[in-house]
């Protein structure tokens, strides 16, 4: 499962999670998590920490980092993610990248909430 999918799935209700996990998960690499119980534990980690990290599960030698994006009602509507080469992402680099991804998702969530509260004709500036 890729990081953005994990972030979205982690914030759906249990019935939706059950539906998704009742279907076979295709293995993209030998590191792809396939066990539904393991995936559920990882989804709990995403909810607890506010982000997901995967290594080599979709693309060998790639690390994915993602954080969920929420609407004004607190419903998950997407995720922000980045990918990088594992060889270039040591622990120090990951501790730099994770907060950036989480902050970007929080900024988008905030902007979505502003747009939704301002009404259908509202717009935000294209850049910050």
From TrEMBL:
Keywords per UniProt: DNA-binding
Classification via InterPro entries: GAF-like_dom_sf, HTH_MetabolicPath_Reg, Tscrpt_reg_IclR_C
Segments forming domain IclR-ED: 1-114
GO MF annotation, one: DNA binding
PROSITE patterns per record: ICLR_ED (PS51078)
SUPFAM superfamilies: GAF domain-like
Species annotation: Microbacterium trichothecenolyticum
The name this protein goes by in its record: DNA-binding IclR family transcriptional regulator
Domain of life (superkingdom): Bacteria
């Amino acid at each position: 499962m890729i990081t953005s999918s994990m972030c979205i799935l982690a914030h759906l209700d249990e019935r939706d999670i059950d539906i998704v996990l009742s279907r076979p998960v295709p293995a993209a690499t030998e590191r792809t998590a396939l066990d539904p119980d393991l995936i559920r534990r990882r989804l709990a980690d995403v909810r607890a920490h506010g982000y997901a990290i995967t290594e080599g599960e979709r693309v060998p030698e790639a690390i994915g980092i993602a954080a969920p994006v929420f609407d004004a009602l607190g419903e998950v509507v997407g995720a922000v993610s980045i990918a990088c080469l594992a060889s270039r992402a040591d622990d120090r680099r990951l501790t730099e990248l994770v907060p950036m991804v989480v902050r970007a998702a929080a900024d988008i969530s905030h902007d979505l909430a502003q747009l939704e509260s301002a009404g259908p004709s509202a717009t935000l500036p294209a850049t910050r």
